[in-house]
Amino acid sequence: MKIVSVVGTRPNLVKIAPLCQSFDHQQGRAWQHVLVHTGQHYDDALSGAFFRDLQIPPPDIQLNTGSGSHAEQTARIMQAIEPVLCRERPDWVIVPGDVNSTLAATLVAVKLSMKVAHLEAGLRSFDRRMPEEINRVLTDSVADLLLTPSADADDNLAREGIPPERIRRVGNIMVDTLVRHLDRARQSAILTRLGLETQGYCYVTLHRPSNVDDPATLGRIMDSLSDLSQQLPVIFPLHPRTRTRLEQPPMTPAATARLRLLPPVGYLDSIQLLDSARFVVTDSGGLQEESTFLGIPCLTLRDNTERPVTLTEGTNRLTRPEWLARDLATLLNQPPKRGIPPEYWDGNTADRIVRVLLER
Ligand code: UD1
User: Fold this and answer.
1) Dihedral (Cα; 219, 223, 226, 228), 10-degree rounding
2) Percent of the chain, pLDDT > 90?
3) Considering 37, 41, 181, 207, which one is annotated as catalytic?
4) Residue 356, class by beta-carbon neighbours within 10 Å (0-12 exposed, 13-18 middle, 19+ buried)?
5) Among candidates 82, 84, 86, 83, which has minimal Cα distance to 74?
6) What is the pTM of this model?
7) Is 207 tagged catalytic?
8) CA dihedral defined by 141, 147, 150, 156, rounded to 10 degrees?
9) Nearest residue CA, atom 3 of ligand 1?
10) Ligand 1 in contact with 31 (CB < 6 A)?
11) Measuring from atom 17 of ligand 1, which residue has the nearest CA?
């Protein structure tokens, strides 16, 4: 069996890492895995550092497509990946997540009559303003095998008329990565380096266009975080999109003066920062799940989430820029929300995926 997996961005790497390991155990048994990197993320901090931290073998094929508008990026990835898939002729193409690389690779593969397995299928925010929602709906509508993390994802797909034989619930692959690397993450020196105490700071990550692209929205968020930093250090590694926005007028250096702004951190440092935080403020999908698994209170700066189990069973709560100051005060003054890890968040998802592929 020949499998081509396609990754492009930081969260894709967290999702593919355990599968690379499981496929590696099968290598030589009539099983070949080819890893393709589209180059959607290319900075070492967003890509190379994650390969090293997660011990992912270097990509077999690098497409180096880079940044651009959605149309440019998607089109460039499609053009670059078509000859690769024609040459490799895989039995399965695996696409994780919901980024532009996911959709671009899917469209090319299905038109070449190749079988596509979507990893993390069925998640829905029901918010079509999000580019990721478009990527999810379109990928799921044409992929052959929909590997879902949770029961709500199965229900979403059933509602869209997808036949049950295309859907397999395998669990949350990010949790596999977390379980495998938690001990190493807890040895990270980042707390000492930053002079932080366990439970003595707030960890922040923000990169969604809906939070960072509009200066008025971003300014409002920064004001609330700045007020919080008078009571608790605020540790905020900056995604390149966010850094660019913060450096543009009308943002002023005063807006960020009191925050501890850092370059993007690697996977192990991020998990250590999360695991030891008093709470986290984020708009990342991955951090909503990781905080639920680790039992760290999480405020998600979004109107909705495609990961509802983190709200119903986990430690997550949604907030908005105009509510942030109030919700931060509540978190500081009230006992935190407790949660339990949802079903199938057990670290065995990659093995279940391998079994499903072997069955088929
Ligand atoms: C992408 C995904 C988003 C995911 C996020 C994780 C889409 C539509 N969005 O958003 O779902 O949550 O990755 O980080 O696929 N840039 C760099 N260095 C890089 C990559 C990008 O500086 O290595 C800058 C460029 O200026 C680029 C901007 O960041 O224009 C945005 O990058 P892009 O890949 O378009 O989207 P993300 O915001 O990273």
Assistant:
1) -130
2) 90
3) 207
4) middle
5) 82
6) 0.95
7) yes
8) 10
9) 99
10) no
11) 240
**Cα 94 from Cα 145, distance rounded (Å):** 9
Helix, strand and coil content of the chain, in percent to the nearest 5, comes to 50, 15, 35
CA 164, 169, 172 angle in degrees (round to 5)?
A: 150
Rounded distance from Cα 66 to ligand 1 centre (Å): 9
- DSSP class of residue 171? -
12 lines ligand 1 (CB under 6 A): no
What's the rounded mean pLDDT across residues 171-200? Answer: 97
Contact 266, 238 (CB under 8 A): no
Cα first-last separation, the chain: 11
pLDDT in tens, 230-283: 999 999 999 999 999 999 888 777 777 789 999 999 999 999 999 999 999 999
Other beta carbons within 10 Å of 308: 18
Instruction: Give the Å distance between the CA of 97 and the centre of ligand 1.
Output: 14
- The gap from C-alpha 69 to its chain's centroid, in whole angstroms, comes to 20
Residue nearest to atom 19 of ligand 1 (CA): 41
Q: Answer whether 341's CB lies under 8 Å from 355's CB.
A: no
Other beta carbons within 10 angstroms of residue 237's beta carbon come to 21
104 CB near ligand 1 (under 6 Å) = no
Q: How far apart are CA 271 and CA 266, in angstroms?
A: 9
What is the rounded distance in angstroms from the CA atom of residue 113 to the CA atom of residue 110? 5
Q: With a 6 A CB cut-off, is 312 part of the ligand 1 pocket?
A: no
